[in-house]
Design brief:
Strand order of the largest sheet: 1-2-3-4-5-6-7-8
Structural class: alpha/beta
Radius of gyration: 19 Å
Order of helices and strands: EHEHEHEHEHHEHHEHEHHEEH
Strand content: 15-25%
């Protein structure tokens, strides 16, 4: 299996494994990671055929990009069959939705024998994020389900989610794994998508889940260092000498130089 640095993934495209047209289209677009969904996007009567389609799509691949299969949650009738299918598929990653307990993540990993990303979608999942992260390849915020779990009224914005989202980021950073923001539901509101993506990046997320190809370009742009950021980083690195020093009216030290170099390296990769 290929080894990927998931922190470099800006956009995670979730698509129904039951939709062959969407799968084929995904091979031609610029999403950084492809998620073949067996869970929410697939009707109950199509779970079996979607499972077979996901295995087939993973075998064909997506141009070297990382691929994950999102299986059904622990307790769902398809959870066991999904794990076995994922284990023998060519997909290098598995996503476990509604993760709340360490044993769920550990058990999924033991059966699938692949790195597992944990979706944090409930209040219990947020509280357990610090324990889940060390056993995961990354954390993914499931913001729609999380808002429902917290009983945040529809249309209330994300202010009520901010503490939970920051907790998820902290858990991932403490464990040294990737972390991704949830989806934006508006499919024809690019300004709203860009604003939410900028907020997610400011929280510390590596990238963002998307549910439609039209969202990918905006998310990739927001989660990529801008030319202005890169120029500023390069200038800081060039000017820095050693230790704490004054630079353009502020104090900088080795930490700031390391951050600037990391930004430049991410853009190059």
């Amino acid at each position: 299996m290929a080894v990927h640095d998931l922190t470099l993934c800006r956009s995670l495209l979730f698509l129904p494994a039951s939709n062959p047209r969407a799968i084929e289209k995904a091979r031609q677009i610029e999403a950084d990671m492809i998620v073949l969904d067996l869970e929410d996007a697939v009707p109950e009567d199509q779970k079996g055929s979607a499972r077979a389609a996901a295995v087939s799509a993973a075998a064909e691949g997506f141009g070297g990009r990382p691929v994950a299969i999102r299986i059904n949650a622990v307790g769902h009738r398809c959870h066991g069959d999904d794990m076995i299918a994922a284990r023998y598929s060519k997909a290098p990653y598995v996503i476990l939705p509604k993760a709340e307990k360490e044993r769920q993540l550990i058990g999924t990993h033991q059966v699938c024998e692949k790195p597992v990303l944990a979706m944090i979608e409930t209040a219990a999942g947020v509280l357990c994020a610090g324990a889940l992260a060390p056993h995961s390849a990354g954390l993914v915020a499931g913001t729609n389900d999380l808002a429902a779990s917290l009983r945040i009224p529809p249309g209330s914005g994300r202010s009520g989610l901010s503490a939970a989202l920051q907790h998820i980021v902290i858990a991932a950073r403490a464990a040294g794994v990737a972390v991704f923001d949830g989806v934006y539901n508006g499919l024809e509101d690019d300004d709203g998508l860009a604003e939410q993506a900028r907020e997610g990046r400011s929280f510390g997320f590596d990238g963002k889940s998307v549910i439609h190809p039209s969202q990918i370009a905006t998310v990739n742009r927001v989660f990529s260092p801008s030319e202005q950021e890169l120029e500023a980083a390069a200038a800081l690195v060039a000017a820095a000498t050693d230790g704490a020093e004054r630079y353009e009216g502020r104090m900088i030290e080795a930490l700031h130089v390391a951050e600037a170099r990391a930004l430049i390296a991410k853009a190059r990769r």
